[in-house]
Design goal:
Layout: H1 3-17, H2 23-36, H3 39-52, H4 59-62, H5 81-87, H6 89-111
Helix pairs in contact: 1-2, 1-3, 5-6
Protein name: Replicative helicase inhibitor G39P N-terminal domain-containing protein
Length: 113
């Protein structure tokens, strides 16, 4: 969120709750809100707080953090399991060994029933 948007949130709080903010308090709120907050979500959270609480809000009551962007990174084809099985004999041999050991382990577990 921009610093001007954070200041707007502070102004809404100050007017709604007759809450005073000195310069230091304003700097702290602006710093936290602008670095970590999402303006639209924080405004919604503040509006809900105003509707539900007669007490003065804290930063935690107002701050709605930005959702982290999730980026899907595709592996190069050469790094996929299927490609390695088809093109890397050593990888394919190790994979067959792992499968063989897994099947033997399952067979052993079933034999104890």
């Amino acid at each position: 969120m921009k610093k001007s948007e954070a200041l707007h949130i502070i102004e809404v709080i100050a007017e709604t709750y007759n809450m005073s903010f000195n310069e230091r308090k304003i700097d702290i709120w602006i710093d936290i809100l602008s670095k970590e907050g999402d303006f639209d979500q924080s405004m919604k959270k503040l509006q809900n707080f105003i509707k539900q609480s007669k007490y003065k809000p804290t930063i935690a009551d107002v701050l709605a953090t930005k959702p982290k962007a999730f980026e899907i990174k595709e592996k190069p084809v050469e790094e996929t399991h299927q490609y390695k099985l088809e093109n890397d004999p050593e990888y394919a041999r190790k994979w067959q060994e792992v499968k063989r050991k897994g099947r033997a382990f399952i067979k052993e577990l079933r034999s104890h029933d």
